[in-house]
Write a structure and sequence with these properties.
The structure is a single chain. It contains 16 helices and 16 strands. By secondary structure, it is of the alpha/beta class. The strands form five sheets. It has a seven-stranded mixed sheet with strand order 4-12-11-10-9-5-6, with helices on both faces. A three-stranded antiparallel sheet has the order 13-16-15. Strands 1-14 form a two-stranded parallel ribbon. Helix 2 packs antiparallel against helix 10, helix 3 runs parallel beside helix 10 and helix 13 (351-361) packs across helix 15.
Length: 447
């Protein structure tokens, strides 16, 4: 008898095939990434790291080469070490970093490891306010890290970072870390300006680029590591099109994490390795690391640059079309893959109602707070959407125009019927149109 879980997997396949994924933090992996993630590497424990000797002679194409497991706590690591080494080398090449730790289970784990590597409990960290587009792991009081470190929030002004406020707070509080990172921010940060501020006070410069890492890898967004930043964390899904997980890129000295290491910015790669294992995690998920390695290999190919370029083109087109229908976009538009709209002020409909209505027609996005929002987490004034997933399916400007049209039609239904009780027939009509278009653009690894 088939387990009901597999029935639900089949139902999810249908949902993904017949709908359009507009959540900017979601994407589709290739069949190869999916195959690696479901591989027998899930059977193996591998606490520790692959060998750090002889990296200058590493060649991933030497199939028979040995990598001695001097830094593992279990035997039988020959293949594990090679796969993890490949993931490390590809990540370093992709982001022009001196080192990469590919073991974090998530972006949140990656951020916590950096905090633990550099800060002591009570130390100050300057980061973007969650209410202005930051992320939970950047100091929200509901997180563990906020109870360990003293986060000082900076805000935005007219949709961009308030750099004057950031500098004022940095000089006043002298934080150990200045963090540039976000989950709902549509501009390209001025990394050079932040780096100058950080150098004045000797702060570690950290960038959480979980949302735009694929745009950086694709060459359509600046790389903070090339603008004076010491550390960059990111998830490996979102715009990178890899499995769910995290990585930490860093600049500085690379050596065995077993050795006693002076706490200097130059040694941050070694300190980070110590902080990931054994500091904040146990055994890494090597089946996921194998999938990361495959995804990074795909990201290094020339066609990925075209994909990254297309993401931004689609986002700008979609933003422009939405504005033509009267939607208010935070920041006046977008410079990356992400769009944040205030639907409450414009149409009198809160983000959660609009999210639920769009779900009915097969358009998936998420309700999201906007700067200064008083609606709370479950009745926010805005919604957040983006173009990575639909771009992966091959959609372009004509499809962006149709999506904007459908979103306005759904909003008109919400305005006329805020409780969404008498509009099923209207939703059904739009849903059939969405489904027809969705089926023309296959989902990787499903069709």
């Amino acid at each position: 008898m088939k387990d009901i879980v597999f029935d639900l997997i089949d139902e999810e396949k249908v949902r993904q095939k017949e709908g359009l994924e507009l959540i900017p933090s979601e994407n589709y992996v290739s069949p190869e990434v999916l195959k690696a993630m479901g591989s027998i590497f899930t059977n193996k424990y591998s606490e520790g790291y692959p060998n750090f000797k002889g990296l200058e002679d590493w060649d991933e194409d030497k199939i028979g080469s040995e990598v001695l497991s001097n830094y593992r706590y279990y035997g039988g690591q020959r293949n594990i070490d090679r796969v993890e080494r490949i993931a490390i080398e590809r990540a370093m090449k992709l982001f022009h970093a001196d080192h990469a730790n590919v073991q974090p289970h998530s972006g949140a784990n990656a951020n916590e490891a950096v905090y633990w590597a550099w800060c002591e409990p009570g130390d100050k960290i300057l980061a973007m306010d969650l209410g202005h587009g930051g992320h939970l792991t950047h100091g929200s009081p509901v997180t563990r890290s906020a109870h360990i470190y003293n986060f000082i929030p900076y805000g935005t002004k007219d949709g961009d970072i308030d750099y004057d406020e950031l500098e004022k707070l940095a000089l006043e509080h002298k934080p150990k870390i200045i963090l540039v990172g976000y989950s709902a921010f549509m501009k390209v940060p001025d990394f050079d300006r932040v780096a100058k501020i950080g150098k004045k006070i000797g702060a570690l410069l950290m960038a959480d680029m979980a949302h735009v890492a694929g745009l950086i890898a694709g060459g359509v967004h600046p790389n903070p590591l090339e603008h004076g930043f010491h550390v960059m964390t990111t998830t490996t899904h979102k715009t990178l099109r890899g499995p769910r997980g995290g990585i930490i890129l860093s600049m500085g000295n690379v050596a065995s994490p077993l050795k006693k290491t002076e706490k200097t910015i130059e040694n941050i790669p070694i300190l980070i390795d110590k902080a990931v294992f054994p500091g904040t995690q146990g055994g890494p998920l090597e089946h996921v690391i194998a999938a990361k390695a495959v995804a990074f290999g795909e990201d290094l190919k020339p066609e990925f640059k075209e994909y990254a370029k297309k993401i931004v083109e689609n986002a700008k087109c979609l933003a422009s079309e939405l504005q033509s229908y009267g939607f208010e976009l935070i920041g006046g538009g977008t410079e990356n893959h992400l769009i944040l709209m205030n639907v409450m002020d414009t149409f009198g409909v809160n983000g959660k109602v609009y999210e639920r209505a769009l779900d009915k027609v097969g358009l998936t996005l998420n309700a999201n707070a906007v700067p200064g929002d008083k609606g709370g987490a479950f009745k926010p004034s805005g919604v957040r959407l983006g173009t990575p997933a639909i771009t992966t399916r091959g959609m372009g400007k004509p499809e962006m125009k149709k999506i904007a049209k459908w979103m306005k039609e759904v909003m008109d239904i919400c305005v006329a019927d805020p409780e969404l009780e008498k509009s099923d027939a209207k939703f059904d009509k739009i849903r059939e149109e969405v489904k027809a278009m969705a089926l023309k653009f296959p989902v990787p690894a499903i069709d």
